């Protein structure tokens, strides 16, 4: 751990100013945020080059913070959700966060080297290089569903790239926000990392700051506003949005395995996951079998889901009402609701047992909106080409899952569709792989991060051309004569 007076070093002392609690109107919120932003920008301008020892110190400090605050983070998230097990927080948030940190510690020094070599034939003996440089001050807007992982992931990548970072945490998880802000303030000097708390007005004001890069994770509808606000300063954005991620069970899939992995991907965090399977495409003759198998595997994973402490609650009363409304509207419009457990939903505890929906159609909100909960529509198809066409007729999803044992069919689905990412014969795991970029496409997002992709997202890859003392560039100077004519003929032939 660094000391307070170390240039660029994290500190073990408490810095109350590293956490800003801003709750006011948009203009006042921005006025309160700007001094902190300006201080971070000034610190960057005073020392724009960040060496490897400093970056390593930051990453190690973040790693130590996660270990130290493991239980406080999990308890705060459990309280915010009114029920989320420490096991799930460890597996879905802490484990991938630490994995990404270890990956960055192992590879950042190499990423920092960039590339260099000789210039092209006609410019020899000049040299060229690409040098990654920190952008400056990076903004990160964090959602409520994975408040730790979706804060620490971008923070890791931005610190590895040598940046200073402002993080706006969600007001929907206030207990976590308080603990996280305190932990960051204890770990980092405020000119390096600042956590901002507050309501949606604060988030709007935050998105108007002239960041060198802004990463937003959340709903597509909010992504429009974030991008519009960022455009005022031509701030580049990475948008991690959502959408309706399909799971396609091919005719050659290992049936029990496919249904189990789809249900696990759907039921972790009670489906409150941006890359959770949002609907399933199954061979028409397998529709009834899917419902029966889903009921069996759900009971095996989460017996007595309503009272099972390992099954996560819905985060808020508003979200609970939205989900029960989606299911009710679908049933009223002709869908068949297959409850996977006998217990009824419990609004007082925000416990919503999983439900499979069949007989759905595009007129239902459940088939137009991202569900973000334990409701799973199942759509039958007659042949694989029809399933591919079904996906392609809809907005491009953040994730796609395909299950089959035939590589030709798998390749047909992967190559015939466009999505942010793909996991084959499983769900969610492309997000956990540190060497793969994570991001959407079209309405599910733009840009990506994680690992080297994140390092590059938060770096300016500066091209450098170094002219040699002895070179032939002067031969192309005016006035143009026979030598020029001969050379240009060679250059353009």
TrEMBL record:
Gene3D superfamilies for this protein: Aldehyde Dehydrogenase, Chain A, domain 1, Aldehyde Dehydrogenase, Chain A, domain 2
Any one GO cellular component localisation term in the record: cytoplasm
Keyword Nucleus: no
Signal peptide: none
GO terms for biological process, alphabetical: aldehyde metabolic process
Domain Aldehyde dehydrogenase, first and last residues per copy: 38-462
Pfam family, one: Aldedh
Keywords tagged on the record: NAD, Oxidoreductase
Annotated GO MF terms: aldehyde dehydrogenase (NAD+) activity
The UniProt record lists the keyword NAD: yes
Active site, renumbered: 240, 274
Highest rank taxon of the organism: Bacteria
Family the entry assigns: Belongs to the aldehyde dehydrogenase family.
Name of the molecule in the record: Aldehyde dehydrogenase
The species this protein was found in: Pandoraea captiosa
